[in-house]
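re: that chain from earlier
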Amino acid sequence: MINIARENYQNSVGSSPFVYAGYFCNNNCIFCFEKDNKFRNKTADELKEEIDVIRKNFDFINFMGQEPTLRKDIVDLVGYAKQLKFNQVGITTNGRMFAYAKFAKQILESLDQVVVTVTGSNAETHDYHTESENSFSQTLQGIKNIIFFGGSCVSLVVNLMVTEKNYKKLSEIVDFYAQLGVREINIGHILPYNREIRNTKNIIAKMSKVVPYLIKIHEKHGEKIKFLFVEYPACVFPEKYRHLSFPCLEENYNKSRIGICAGCSYFGKCVGIPKDYLELYGEEEFSI
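^ sequence. v structure.
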């Protein structure tokens, strides 16, 4: 989801509400969408010009990239966006910098939403995916600081990424963040968007194996937590649960239609299934 939105943004500045402001990261996630991409580190003035263009077309904005909070000028950039009176100023992050209370308090003064990416509810699972020791402890403290300092003024969204290594733990992971007080969770399927994992079933989970866990989570927490099950097309769910599907709507060269698409009632809401995923698992699991 993030990768697709980023591509759209890079192609035409101002055509999406995303500011690609992060060019390096303090995690080394095995599934990173950005590993194959190299971008020039833009100056604050260049990014402010882009923010101005976005404001003409959108009333919300999100700072994203590999890890935007590592920019020394990120507080200033977010504050600049806030001055332009966007209805919502947000940031997508691994949350580690928010572990520092001084930084968290400063940047949260200008943020309405923080989206924090996680892969587990303990160090063993999370740090395995990030390949960064102590990343879980920092991210967890960051989430706690966002809740404490942001309060009801800041929307906290946990962006839970699903792989072959963690999908069987989804229920306990969601339970953990629900107990912390998180009320919005995006569950996104990791797709083969970098060369290292393109043909790796050890990392890319089969969607149809994950779906029963998504249904269980929704039935347990659906009344209290707002879920988005991202990149799961409706045709991978049983008919009763197809409304849970949230396929990314951005056009993407990597996606393609399959035979059943023409007769699907979700045709206008879905742009297909990633070609690399189909090469990995085929299309037998999808049906209408």
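The domain at 2-253 is CATH 3.20.20.70 (TIM Barrel).
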